Amino acid sequence: xxKPRWLDEQExxxxxxxxxxxxxxxxxxxxxxxxxxxxxHTQYEILVQLSAVPDGSLRMTDLADRLVTSKSGxxxxxxxxxxxxxxxxxxxxxxxxxxxxxxxEEGWRVLREAAPGHVATVREVLIDVLSREQLAxxxxxxxxxxxxxxxxxxxxxxxxxxxx
Amino acid sequence: xxKPRWLDEQExxxxxxxxxxxxxxxxxxxxxxxxxxxxxHTQYEILVQLSAVPDGSLRMTDLADRLVTSKSGxxxxxxxxxxxxxxxxxxxxxxxxxxxxxxxEEGWRVLREAAPGHVATVREVLIDVLSREQLAxxxxxxxxxxxxxxxxxxxxxxxxxxxx
DNA sequence: ACACCTTAGTTCGAATTTGAACAACAGGGT
DNA sequence: ACCCTGTTGTTCAAATTCGAACTAAGGTGT
Lengths: 164, 164
Description:
Chains A, B: Residues 1-147 form the HTH marR-type domain. Chains A, B: InterPro entries: HTH_MarR-typ, MarR/SlyA-like, WH-like_DNA-bd_sf, WH_DNA-bd_sf. Two copies of one chain form a homodimer. Chain A is mostly helical. The first copy, chain A, is 68% helix and 8% strand. Chain A contains six helices and three strands, in the order H-H-E-H-H-E-E-H-H. Chain A has helices spanning 9-37, 41-51, 60-67, 71-83, 105-125, 132-160, and strands at 57-59, 87-91, 99-103. Chain A has a three-stranded antiparallel beta sheet. In chain A, a hairpin with a 7-residue loop joins strand 2 (87-91) and strand 3. In chain A, helix 2 packs across helix 5 (105-125). Chain A is globular. The structure holds a DNA duplex.
């Protein structure tokens, strides 16, 4: 932290663009999902992640990682969605501590119902705004960014157990 | 919503990349700011926005727009920061209803203190990960995305008053 | 001056999120 | 078999967020 290397104009534009776009997009998605499907974006993501896996069920920790949320946050949401009948908890045979979150028939139904409107909004706010070239570079760039951050988190966690 | 145009592989990569990167970056920023400056990202952004304007003060609504947050959310945060001495409320001369949020000396100090570490993290998670070309395209892309969303929000607001 | 519609900020209650603390279990090495 | 360390998911309190309702002004047209 000796001499901070401040951001030049172009770097600042990229950073501000990223932060502002994230917030605006999140706000729009939240509003659209709530209005047309009665779901929060978090809940929708839970449905998506579960539906994307062969048997429609994932371990809590695994699911929390994919959602990029805290374990306690997931516990809360799964409880809510369980009350709403979209998800069911199932215990794990090989590990007594383990809990699977599993999509119910109702969960599939809600997802099928919500997906078209969500995808349309995603196109509207991001995908259809950009050219193919821009999309390609965006995917590549943010994929790399994500990979590095995941790796960094793993490193912190490994050291973090006993703090050195 | 007739026939949903699903996302192809490349579009999906861009979208997932965006969502995942947003969450990971936000988590990292939050952690870094809390640890090294005792600030939330929201609070840091308030300091930044106020510092970026000539007299270090903005109307509440204006500030809320720049932060992409709700008015009530801003009221809460400004109250917190006022208690912490980083910000001061000042009433507006030309409009009795108006309220300015103004950076205090302490606010400037906190910002100067926090900025280097924040910028370093921003470089670490995004800027220094990408090439110049990628940065240029990212800024351009997300700038356009933001502009369109802002415009869409304005249109909704104008119609929204009496709901057509 | 008087209705009328919009705007500015705050207040309120409800929903969500997080990290720390916790209890129970898994796994490995001795 | 046993101790030690790391995991798993939940609980808890505290902080934050949002939208709707509300108060108080602005601004406009008549």
